[in-house]
Amino acid sequence: MSSGPFDIATALEWLDSHLDHESSSAGVAAGRVEGLSIEPMRELVALLGDPQDAMPVIHVTGTNGKGSVVAILRRLLMANGLSVGTFTSPHLGRPHERIARDGVPISDPDLAEALSGVASVESMLGAPPSWFEVITAAAFRWFADAPVDVAVVEVGLLGRYDATNVVTADVAVVTGIAGDHTDFAPGWELAVAEEKAGIVTPGRPVVLGDVATPLWEVFEAEGAEPVLALGRDFEVLDARLAVGGRMLDLSGPHGSHAGVLLGLHGEHQATNAAVAVTAAEEFFGRGLTDEVVTEAFAEVDLPGRLEVAAHHPLVVLDVAHNPDALRAVASTLDDDFSVAGSRIIVFAMLAGRDLDEAAAALAVARPDLVVCTSIGEGARAVAATELAAAVEATGVASEAVDDPTDALAAALSRASEEDLVLVCGSARLVGHLRGVIADSVR
Asked: In 3D, which of 179, 190, 202, 208 has the Cα closest to residue 69?
């Protein structure tokens, strides 16, 4: 394919011609990514003029909560008058969603131009870059050209050898460490922590969310200064249920914030908010005013995270894709989405997670039925029948419907106006059915 200027269709076709590790079964053992290196990405961005160095960066990793922390951070930075680039993954609809300025996804012409720039240097590389390396490089190029005042960059996988780790983080953030992208071999928590600690810049702050105390020293050993940990240096004092979200009381090294309303569902979002506020205050080197925090929290928009997609029946979408995230969503339903009727879950997962533990996490929600489906035929897709068997082993009624759209239709056909339908287990599933629901109400 020509490496000349692309239109958007040609650009996306070229992008999709590259190996996509998100859709393949890349080797991950005890938290370490096998066979991957950061050096090809360093070579790629060097050919582009190292655009990742054109702006300060807040680098975010963690098993769960990365997208939430990035979204809250963006609003906190914008409320202080900054233009903010965000790079996130995966996308729910189009790749454009991954690259945004002030919350607005990159346009067709700009994405085509950014990808054309990457294509123009591809022949100089020793080996073809991966899909994720290409989109990451395109994001950095666009942020530098836009320009933005600061970029908030979400890690794709773990940290140390992730394509995003060509940045020099002004502030590093670790939202938490739990079981995902690991084989759960002995010592996996330490191994995952060591990989995530790879995003730390010596002498710069790292903010730790749900990270076990014994693992803090891993980040200290990387030279982070200071290491700010949830429960020691900052905390959630209270997270009261309120209309439209949670009323939070937060404390941290730069002061406290009392009675600020976060417009997101789920008690776990209180921790994400505390992490984001602490990271923003470390970035500025000062405390934020309550007015700024209140303004930012009121504007946070987070598609696919306990998102209400329809009413009567109530349809809620969440990208929770591992047991810890599924438990957090399940425990939220009673407080945030209490309904008079039944609970039906539409569920799919990728391989590489503990299906039995995931099924047990779903059972916490006390569903009346789980409709299991599959999200494709790639190397990482899990058959609907396999998921249904795991769910039924917990004593919960289940059925297998191979096609996701048919699975949603099956759930809705069984639901009355007083019921709740929860779609979860995979960003790909949520993205697909989010589009189906949107099309149905147009």
From this structure: 208
